[in-house]
Specification:
Blueprint lengths: L6 H22 L5 H21 L3 H24 L5
Helix pairs in contact: 1-2, 2-3
Length: about 90
């Protein structure tokens, strides 16, 4: 990679760190909080999408779209189930 890193690359690195952190949290926690897990995944997907809109990689952009959709679904599921917990 000969091109210097720009702000959008750094934004993408932060997004990558979010997704990796969320996966680590899921693996390490006995009872992961779904809001932390899915919220962090959604933030990571959003940040990576910003980077990918500038440094276009269509397959990765599609992946982030699915990643964000799954995170939104997980957040909605957690919110729906919030009242069912006793």
């Amino acid at each position: 990679m000969d091109a210097p890193l720009d702000i959008y690359s750094y934004v993408g690195f932060v997004g990558t760190a979010c997704i990796i952190s969320a996966y680590f949290y899921l693996t390490a926690a006995d009872k992961p909080n779904p809001y932390i897990l899915h919220g962090t995944n959604l933030a990571g997907a959003a940040l990576l999408t910003v980077s990918l809109l500038v440094h276009t990689n269509v397959p990765s952009l599609v992946l982030e779209g699915f990643w964000a959709a799954i995170a939104i679904w997980g957040l909605a599921k957690a919110w729906r189930n919030k009242g069912k917990q006793a």
